[in-house]
Amino acid sequence: MAQLSDDCFAFGGPMMTVDEAVALIASRLTPVADTETVALSEADGRVLAEDLIAPLPLPPFTNSAVDGYAVHGTDLPAEGEKVFPIAARVQAGMSPGALIEPGHAVRIFTGAPMPEGADTVFMQEDVRLDEAGDVILPAGLKHGANVRPVGEDIAAGSVVLRAGQILRPQDVALVAALGLTEVSVRRRVRVAVFSTGNEIVSPGATRGPAQLFDSNRFMLRAMLARLGCAVTDLGILRDEGEAIARVLAEAATGHDLILTSGGVSTGEADHVKASVESVGSLVFWRVAVKPGRPVAMGVIRGAAFIGLPGNPVASFVTFAHIARPAIRALAGATPETLLAMPLRAAFSYRKKPGRREYVRASLRKGADGTYEAEKFPREGAGLLSSLVDTDGLVELGEEVTDIKPGDVVRFLPYSSLL
Ligand code: AMP
Ligand code: MG
């Protein structure tokens, strides 16, 4: 006799692993093609549209790395000390002056151009001045010390940033150092987002006794904003298939992605899947991930559709592991490999094989001073406190069935998922 089960994984139909779902998404989505030019001050977080080639070397001229005295390398004292008259003085921003004669030193400061002929700088802390004002240099300094040669950082003509790079503050610094005032980036991914559920009301509205304030939409909007998306908030839709289908069809024009939460399960009030199928097609609707369970992906008149589950923790996890790679693919960003930290588990856990599970966990210092992952004590997928009071997710792969304290697990800090 067939077993009855409330586990949606027990229902028939296609079921894929997270990796299969992400690979399928990457193969189905094409990046937005339009590009725009943005000023440096607006470049952080944008996706670089073309490889960036250095128009000049960095540093652009050979200069001193310290405050001190520049000399010819061939003049370095072999042993003992040697006295050098000071021929000139060069400060940052000055021209390097005349060629330095052998046997002479030049007083020089950090960032000042090296005088022609000089190739080694003594730090001022390592020298003495005699009564005549000449400088006494000790033996032992390496030829070429304390000099930053032209192009040692970046060679002119080299590719310094690749197309697909999501620009970070240090990337913006590099673009600025190269003297550029703007960069070519992909246009922002346009995302329409709405919540579903007769029981969901917006914060600020009057809440009936059996109603909840919408938290998902604000979480998803914040996550989308961090990914650089231009978001249209379509509010909350009631559990009515036709209304949902109408909004999906309308939103497909003018958006690259429609992102929803709730209504993708198999309950009577779950209309989102059928609505997608009435105006477009579903690519998958179940992924072997917990929390997460039903998470749908589809295509509606050229726009991508992703339907996340309504439970806030399931919404969070599936956004991070399904929607985020999809949005990066749409944005034209290089696919990312999440770098999990190997940490000792401070908990026991059993799970079914064949699905991936994400366990909410906090970092704590173990007895030997190294960090370990402590599991949040409760597991409900609706517990927002479980996301707020933890530091990240422990990823338990499809093959894992049993975790014991002390086992090494993969920890993903929230900072790597947001
Ligand atoms: P569903 O996926 O529609 O079956 O919803 C699963 C659970 O998540 C239900 O308890 C819903 O009340 C809750 N839920 C759905 N949408 C939201 C939302 N936008 N904010 C907070 N909770 C939600
Ligand atoms: Mg619902």
Automatic annotation (TrEMBL):
Picking any one GO biological process from the record gives:
Mo-molybdopterin cofactor biosynthetic process
Which stretches make up the MoaB/Mog domain?
A: 192-329
InterPro entries tied to this protein: MoaB/Mog-like_dom_sf, MoaB/Mog_dom, MoCF_biosynth_CS, MoeA-like, MoeA_C_domain_IV, MoeA_C_domain_IV_sf, MoeA_linker/N, MoeA_linker/N_sf
Reaction catalysis annotation: adenylyl-molybdopterin + molybdate = Mo-molybdopterin + AMP + H(+)
Q: One GO CC term of this entry?
A: cytosol
Q: Name one Pfam family in it.
A: MoCF_biosynth
Query: EC top class, in one word?
Result: transferase
Which pathway is this protein assigned to?
Cofactor biosynthesis; molybdopterin biosynthesis
Q: Does the keyword Acetylation apply?
A: no
Gene3D superfamilies named among the record's database cross-references: MoaB/Mog-like domain, MoeA, C-terminal, domain IV, Molybdopterin biosynthesis moea protein, domain 2, Molybdopterin biosynthesis moea protein, domain 3
Transmembrane regions: none
SUPFAM superfamilies in alphabetical order: MoeA C-terminal domain-like, MoeA N-terminal region -like, Molybdenum cofactor biosynthesis proteins
Query: What cofactor requirement does the entry state?
Result: Mg(2+)
Cite the entry's keywords alphabetically.
Answer: Magnesium, Metal-binding, Molybdenum, Molybdenum cofactor biosynthesis, Transferase
Give the GO molecular function terms.
Answer: metal ion binding; molybdopterin molybdotransferase activity
EC number assigned by the record? 2.10.1.1
Q: Which PANTHER family match?
A: GEPHYRIN, MOLYBDOPTERIN BIOSYNTHESIS PROTEIN
User: Function of this protein?
Assistant: Catalyzes the insertion of molybdate into adenylated molybdopterin with the concomitant release of AMP.
Query: Which protein family is it in?
Result: Belongs to the MoeA family.
What name has this protein been given in UniProt? Molybdopterin molybdenumtransferase
Question: Lineage in the entry?
Answer: Bacteria, Pseudomonadati, Pseudomonadota, Alphaproteobacteria, Hyphomicrobiales
